[in-house]
Amino acid sequence: MQFINTLNQGFGIADCLHFETGPGGLPVATITTAKASAQVALQGAQVLAWQPSGQEPVLWLSETAEFAPGKPVRGGVPVCWPWFGPLADKGLHGFARNRNWSVRASQQDADGQVLLCLSLQDDLQSRLLWDHAFDLELHITVGASLTMTLTTRNTDRAAFTINQALHTYFRVGDIRQICVLGLDGCTYLDKVQAMARLQQSGDIRFSAETDRVYLDTATDCVIDDPVLGRQIRIAKQGSHSTVVWNPWSEKVMPDMASGTYQHMVCVETCNAGPDAITLAPGQQHSLRAEISVL
Ligand code: TA6
Question: What is the pTM (predicted TM-score) of this model?
């Protein structure tokens, strides 16, 4: 409890940002502004919820998500870093999403948006997995849009290379009726077809498991959802790949109830696959996603 008290004394903001012990005993930040509300788990710096005023929740969070120390939570915006996908026997999507991040700063700006900065540095545990010194920051801005900027600084004496993703789960009315715009003509690697290299024709529609890494694309994507009657725009900077994923009905996951695949889609802001980032000592790179409801 002391830890939570210390966080609130140091970084709480009256009436709009406070810290509390959430499910599984994990510390979470709850953000409430005139324009939106949000919840962020300090484990993994994971945005769990974001709901603009007058809108349905924009992020999807599994109703059977497991909240436990060191375990990724199914939904919201997992931070995949410093690798994306599997890496030998070191687990999927890197270790950043399983670690406790620190609160580095918080403020409310003149427009009433709440800014929360979380950070993670290397330690003995991380070096056993990935032997580099780093400083990682996630700047989260909560308002009528949700902006997340993941900044990697190389604090080592040697260069290192990363893949990374803001692995965003979006809530949709019915996966069979939505489409994703913005990737027409792009080349993608199809993980459902042994990483076959294919070209997107038109908007993306869903009728089976879909798991694609779109390459060399810096464009905005839009999720068109006729059931919820909205469009969600994902604008990005510092990212040249986009992953689109829906597990469909066959993929059984303990933290994803049967049938709930129908109400989610991942459109992920990435540097994945061949789109890797190499940083020399002292260099930094930022990956940014801005989500808004049109
Ligand atoms: O981004 C798509 C993906 O790589 C899928 O292949 C699937 O593994 C998904 O991520 C979920 O990964 P997770 O480790 O969160 O279960």
Answer: 0.97
